[in-house]
Protein 1
Amino acid sequence: MPIYLQLMERIKHDIISGLLEPGAKIDSVRDLAARFSVNPNTMQKALSELEREELLHAERTAGRFVTRNKLLIESIRYKEARSITEGFIKRMKSLGYSEEEIIEFLPYTFKEEE
């Protein structure tokens, strides 16, 4: 996966998980590039794509900010959760589990986390 897509996924995850709150100012391109040890042009591309997806927006002299659109964030969060769930189900089925067995398996998984 190209680096800029990996960066997009990381920032998107931080937004939909609540680590970056709606309206939060994000660091500059240079600061983010230094933190992730990437070229500033690569970081700029990732941020521009997130702007295109409307998860970020730029204010001329103030920098970039996370969208305040909570419905958009929740929609993306739901889609991500759905994708993870579908991937889990496909993998479990590839191991030979039936839908019923997968459903029965879940409560045990939660108990192990406690």
Protein 2
Amino acid sequence: MAEYRFRRLTRADFPLLASWLAQPHVFRWWHHQSTPQAVERDFGGGIDGTDPCEDLIVHRDGEPIGLLERSRLADYPEELAELAAIATVPAGAVTLDYLIGDPARTGRGIGTEMIRTAVADTWEAYPDAATIVVAVVAANIVSWRALERAGLRRIAEADLPPDNPIDAPLHYVYRTDRPDGPGARPAG
């Protein structure tokens, strides 16, 4: 398996991130504008600490390949309330979002590897988190299949507001629990 590393997004990464967000396979699901002003608006708060989300550049064998967003659901009460209305969301649950920027790297299992590694990293970075919960629009088959191959299980289906207005509201909700139980630290 390849070596994955996560590091905090910086403003120096904005041109790379903008190029990823402009890729049709990313824009379709993330639906972010890629202008310098839009990237600053959408990602500057995570850098400055005014947004509790962790924006992380994902490196695979030393090369930047994508973005991982990670946050505690409790830091986003509206999103937490939407999910808690359709599924059990334990206190301290973390959520993930992700993208692979280069279209040549898609369809090769890299997303599954990245998610699997992000889950393991989350248990280290959030030692009190017992659960990861991820909602994905049902139309994004590639994403929810990668979640399943990475070991997350579907726990609910419900209508939630989609990121892209062209999508139907149906979302699948996935969950994985810390392997050794709530709050347990991995052995080793």
Protein 3
Amino acid sequence: MKKIISTSNAPAPIGPYNQAVFASETLYISGQIPLNPETGELVSGDIAAETKMVMQNLKAILTEAGLTFENVVKSSIFLSDMNSFAAVNEVYGTYFDEQTAPARETVEVANLPKFVNVEISMIAIK
């Protein structure tokens, strides 16, 4: 069974996709960018602030689904510049217990939606 998860506390999709989809006991969260859901404006200029906004968007979606970061089993981080890795990793790490953190990959890409510097997607389980 597939259930769509949507919250006004995270940015609305900007294309033909949903914020997240539950398939059985697994939640697939679409990539989130540093878009402030209250203002519709991008957070930019400081990779730490951008990453925090992304993580807050992910948290809002997890909350809407009745989950927390403890339920996350896989993260994918996409960066426009791998030189941002340390700053992104520092912010990202504050949301997880290192002993139970999810599996993850971090990749540098040529471009991201709206030309942002960071996008993160997640998979979580009930």
Protein 4
Amino acid sequence: MSGNHLAISNVPIQQWGELYSQEEALNIGTIFHDLNMPFFATESVLGTTNPIASNVVDTNVSNEQAQREQLLTKINQVSFFLDDLTLYLDTHETDTQALKLFHEKSLECAELRKQFAEEFYPLTKLCVPMRGTGEASFCLQDGPIPWEGACV
């Protein structure tokens, strides 16, 4: 097989285009309309609903739990949007429209994490100072242990 090539890849450079909302993007798997290419024909017929970012409220949970899950879903949606936008900016670092959107979404995500820390508990070590309780302790223990499941 020396000298023979089995395959040569050809990957077109992604262009800026129409974006999904952050609510849709997490369920679909991309923020870019042009990159949404379902593997099976039935996916386009059935839709792309995903329980990860479902806005369906479970009636068997407390009001406080429902509020935590709703806020955590928003954080997940914005975080996914930022991650996908970061991948685009890796190859389009001077795209002013993308940079502006990245800045806006970064601020939105930081504000949502701060809100979650103030109302419930810090999600990460970086959220501990956002707790706003005036406590002089490292309060990560206020939230659930990872093996306890979702935001309990």
